Automatic annotation (TrEMBL):
<dbReference type="InterPro" id="IPR036179">
    <property type="entry name" value="Ig-like_dom_sf"/>
</dbReference>
<protein>
    <recommendedName>
        <fullName>CD80-like immunoglobulin C2-set domain-containing protein</fullName>
    </recommendedName>
</protein>
<feature type="domain" description="CD80-like immunoglobulin C2-set">
    <location>
        <begin position="160"/>
        <end position="237"/>
    </location>
</feature>
<dbReference type="InterPro" id="IPR013783">
    <property type="entry name" value="Ig-like_fold"/>
</dbReference>
<dbReference type="InterPro" id="IPR013162">
    <property type="entry name" value="CD80_C2-set"/>
</dbReference>
<keyword id="KW-1015">Disulfide bond</keyword>
<dbReference type="Pfam" id="PF08205">
    <property type="entry name" value="C2-set_2"/>
</dbReference>
Amino acid sequence: MHLFQNTGRRGEDNNSLSMVTSISTCMCYVQSASNQWLIKVPSNIPALQGSCVVIPCVYTYPKTKKILNRWVGFWKRGEMIVSTNLPKIKLTQEFRKRTKLMGNLRSGNCTMRISSVRTTDVGPFYLRIEIPQHKMHTERNFVFTHNVSLIKCHSTETPEPPTMSLDVLDKVKATCTVSHTCPTSPPRFYWSRSGKQKMRSKRLNDFLWTTESTLMFVPLPSDFNQPLNCTVVYSGKKSAQSSMILFRLALPCMLTSFQRTFRLKEPS
């Protein structure tokens, strides 16, 4: 009989506490009088301080017979430009090299990425899209502005320990899973034992992804009564760890799991 025990702990490379910033936007559908203008952004996006977050954003605009060849987009905070698709515009030091308007505005994608998330990455933010050749009934160039509010950081917790599971037959199949909001830089997984590894990511909703690593190995006598550790390192080097202990018991064909979570205390 095999028995395994599950433990989990949080941490990072310098043993200090990390910060979780919650980026919140109301699910918005904003339309013009013609019912052809539409923008969609998600709500309550959790972001790990020091890591990255991708804010998905899509929009549509009225069809026109005019030839359109220029789309200009700005994510702004007040009068400060946070991100833009104009390479000649210099961002302030606060956002320089940390933000990117990833989406193709021509295809209606206004997605933005923020790297090295800080507690100061709060809003409200504004999305501004300009289509100079698109004339409305007033024959004015179209400028579309939509407000996206990002609330302040509400938590100082470290990353949640990954979820682990074990399937034991002739071989051990260990699975380690985490959720995150930065699909462009998914977390990295490190196992305390060698074996055949596979990793895959799956989209759960507009902004949330899961990434899991699977480890396969034939158990040796030395594998029993020892922790099997899975360490997850996020973009920005914040880390979290879970463990499972495999026991060999006298009765065959019986599996029992125990779970225990360790949390690092904030230094006094």
